[in-house]
Amino acid sequence: MTKYLPEGKVFNSPENRFYIQSADHMAEAMAKGIILEGHAVMCTTEHDLVVELPFGKGIIPRTEGAVGISEGTTRDIALLSRVNKTVCFKVNDIITDEKGVTAILSRRAAQEECLEKYISKLQCGDVIPAKVTHLEPFGAFVDIGCGLPSLIPIDAISVSRISHPNDRFFNGQDIYAAVKNISGERICLTHKELLGTWQQNASIFSAGETVGGVIRSVEPYGIFIELAPNLAGLAEPKEGVSAGQAASVYIKALIPEKMKVKLIIVDVFENLCFPSKINYFISSGRLNKWEYSTKESSKTMVSIF
């Protein structure tokens, strides 16, 4: 099942390089039904994708560009947006004429195999690799295998609230996610359960330390500052502070029974940093139940899969 990865993950693999280097090797891949990857360099006026190959070129006809194109359930923007990116495909034919060698390819066939042999077998709680493809205010769209999309709603990205998914992710980022629910072929994902419980995150910090954080919200009673994607603390109100700014903060206290972190703001400045590298506490396996809250706390935060 691990071979059905997001597009781009096998492009530089020894196997992929071997099969796309010549027409003979690609014919072998066709006979074996192997899914390969190449670089899409153009989308024609007919919306056929042109794939660059070492020995010639590949053509993915419009109707073979993605599952749902023929039926009208997938829009042509799904093809246009693949230009200058890696695409997966199976080989349907290899034609040699006076113009050279052209491979006739099908991305749709690769996606159909991925649906049948991988995605249809996923269960709630499965932790899977994914790649961020684009970000919207309501969530992050990701590739979960062979270019097939899924969504992580914004409230499922992290425990610490963010104003937009680009606070946490960037396009092209490799991440992990867990299957939250399944409706037919539609898979909805969650991400926050992989980023650690309150106790796991709090154990990284100690009272008396001064650390960096990001201001996530400014309220009349205080300022919420994120120390980690699944851990935020509260500092006293301060003028001239706004959400999105970076801060250096002194950790006054960590209180497990209340799941609170008391902070004192040392300095505030503009946040010019790229989204931080994500540190996963879970990156494989299957979740049945995940509890964020501490044993001492009266407040319960639980995810059931």
UniProtKB/TrEMBL annotation:
Q: Which GO terms describe its cellular component?
A: cytosolic small ribosomal subunit
Q: In Gene Ontology terms, what is a biological process of this protein?
A: translation
Matches recorded under PROSITE patterns: S1
Alphabetically list the UniProt keywords: Ribonucleoprotein, Ribosomal protein
Return the Pfam families for the record.
Answer: S1
Q: Which residues form the S1 motif domain?
A: 125-192, 208-234
Recorded GO MF terms: mRNA binding; structural constituent of ribosome
Which positions carry the signal peptide feature in this UniProt record? none
Database matches in InterPro entries: NA-bd_OB-fold (IPR012340), Ribos_protein_bS1-like (IPR050437), S1_domain (IPR003029)
- Entry-linked Gene3D superfamilies: Nucleic acid-binding proteins
Top-level taxon of origin: Bacteria
The text of the family note is:
Belongs to the bacterial ribosomal protein bS1 family.
In its UniProt entry, what is this protein called? RNA-binding protein
Q: Which organism is it from?
A: Ruminococcus albus SY3
